Amino acid sequence: MKILFAHGFEGVPTGSKPRYLRETLGHEVIAPLMNARGWTFEDQVSAVTDAMDKHPDIQLLVGSSMGGFAVSVAASRAPERDLRVLLMAPAVGIHSVWAEALGEDDLAKWANTGQRTHFHRGRGVEVELPYALWTQCRDAAGVALDHPAVIIHGLQDETISIDFAMALARRSPGIRRLYGVPDGHRLQESRHLMADAIELLFKS
User: What pTM, to 2 d.p., does this model score?
Assistant: First the structure.
């Protein structure tokens, strides 16, 4: 099966999840660099849609964290495509987490300057994040999925609460199952559930 994998905001295309899909489960995996165009949220969504356009035979979209958010939006904009969606700790609602962490003053400063310096752990360098990243995440937070979809989310997620995934599931007609697992945001102990989720999504 050909799978598109969208890595998280701090991730890279060569992470453990796409390797697991490729090396353990035996799938063909297309894993674009999610920030190839830039650092806005729409840049992340474009990385997914560009890969979808280039590979029309992709059957499954898998996204981790911010990649899961981007995959959700990309899928919602392609109702005509025959797709399945697997979300790993999707960061839908991350704008509210950032707003709470920054506080009103720092969020206002980000809005006024238009940029915020951030150390990117995956790349090991400082990057300038545009304020549009926050506003676009806010504006897309109500996304819903009509395509068949499964969510895997950690009960001990330290980055984004499972409550956001539960809200996404409630408003999405396509959700087949939400796995709440005893794991953190990276879901290091739950990769094996990807096989179960894929089987569920393609069950006739």
Answer: 0.96
